[in-house]
Write a structure and sequence with these properties.
heterodimer; A: 163 residues; mainly alpha; 3 strands; 6% strand; B: 223 residues; alpha+beta; two-stranded antiparallel sheet; 7 helices; 69% helix; 14% strand
Chain lengths: 163, 223
């Protein structure tokens, strides 16, 4: 059996499970500061006429009210990246680089996700189901997957570089 | 081999886009086929004294949902009060969440590098039990967990946060389903490529294995 692969999946599941369980148990209000506030800030600058305000986990304007409920914070994107990078057998330096590049990317993707949902409700309400249910939960996971693939290519190449 | 490396992200994104739109446009039939099994699994998971009356697809606020109607078949005593028999309750989840398992698992399996078309066929066929398993570990637990959360939230809120079914539902709903589908797809890919005995090792497997081997060698030398 490809033990490296199985070990990677087991470690990935363990780290993701631990992080996710910690969030579920503590019920930390991450949606407020991790998602709603930055997305509201970005939207307020992109759409100044909307007069967007953020109240806790709610992004609100005269036209749209977007409630970011538990489970919709997008924290899984962060956890997936952290778990995948830590589980991959690479030097710690490469892992740190992966996290240093990946976490800001995930943060930006999460802001884009909420902003996209806002704009969809605002301009294309008939397409809300497609974006909210089908695209948003998985599209950014696919993008993080591509980032991870590219990072592993680089991390593996460095690992095998002649010393 | 370089071609293979470049192809993986493109195949992943291409398959993801196609599968997502297929799920949106024709997913209803797939979800409808799941309903009888979902009903049985949800019934099995529901707390004692709660009967899964019906499980159906419906549209509410322009979103397609899977909705469970349950009814209490006997009194359910709690510390300070009693939930009487004959009380009806309903819980629902997005139909899209059920479809996300097919999308994630098959996007990964389509992108998984293989050297022969037989390997691809084996991967795609092995995706069926994988999707079956990951979906079964998600949606029925979410529906039953929602019902349990609803009852405990009303009658024993102090127990809700520690209840295993509620915890598992929160875990799955908060992103666990994505990780579950990814792990299922990766394990399927690893197992299938293992049994493609003559096929050369795939690129992803080689990366993980060679990287792990190198580290092992370094550790052994240091000792």
């Amino acid at each position: 059996m490809r033990r490296g692969g199985i070990r990677f999946v087991a470690l990935f599941a363990l780290i993701f499970g631990g992080l996710q369980l910690a969030l579920v148990k503590t019920r930390a209000p991450v949606a407020d500061w991790l998602v709603a506030a930055p997305a509201g800030w970005a939207l307020a600058h992109a759409l100044p006429d909307d007069r967007i305000a953020v109240h806790a986990n709610e992004v609100r304007s005269a036209r749209v009210r977007l409630n970011i409920l538990p489970g919709c914070e997008g924290t899984e994107l962060f956890f997936l990246l952290v778990a995948a990078v830590l589980a991959f057998p690479a030097p710690w330096r490469a892992k740190l680089v992966g996290l240093a590049l990946g976490l800001p990317l995930v943060f930006a993707l999460n802001v884009v996700r909420v902003a996209t949902l806002y704009v969809t409700v605002r301009n294309l309400p008939a397409r809300f189901e497609l974006v909210h249910g089908y695209v948003a939960p998985t599209a950014f996971v696919a993008l993080v997957g591509v980032f991870f693939w590219c990072w592993t290519a680089r991390a593996s190449r460095r690992e095998h570089a002649p010393i | 081999m370089k071609y293979e490396k470049r192809l993986v992200p493109l195949a992943l994104l291409g398959a993801y886009v196609l599968l997502t739109f297929a799920a949106f446009w024709i997913g209803d039939h797939y979800v409808a086929a799941w309903l009888p099994l979902l009903k049985n699994e949800t019934q099995w998971l529901l707390p004692r004294g709660l009967l899964c009356d019906s499980l159906s697809l419906l549209t509410r606020n322009a979103e397609r949902l899977i909705e469970v109607h349950a009814v209490t078949t006997m009194q359910m005593p709690f510390d300070a009060s009693v939930l009487p028999a004959g009380v009806r309750l309903k819980t629902s989840t997005l139909q899209a969440y059920l479809l996300s398992h097919v999308v994630i698992v098959y996007a990964i399996l389509v992108a998984w590098p293989v050297t022969h078309w037989r390997g691809r066929v084996a991967l795609l066929l092995s995706g069926v039990p994988c999707v079956f398993l990951t979906t079964s570990l998600d949606i029925p637990f979410v529906l039953a967990g929602l019902a349990q959360n609803l009852i405990l939230g009303q009658f024993a809120p102090e127990r809700a946060s520690g209840d295993p079914l509620v915890l598992y539902y929160s875990f799955m709903h908060g992103g666990g389903r994505v990780a579950l589908a990814i792990c299922g797809a990766l394990l399927t890919g690893l197992v299938v490529t293992r049994f493609q005995s003559r096929a050369p090792e795939t690129d992803v497997g080689r990366r993980v294995n060679s990287s792990a081997q190198k580290r092992h060698d370094v550790e052994a030398t240091a000792r």
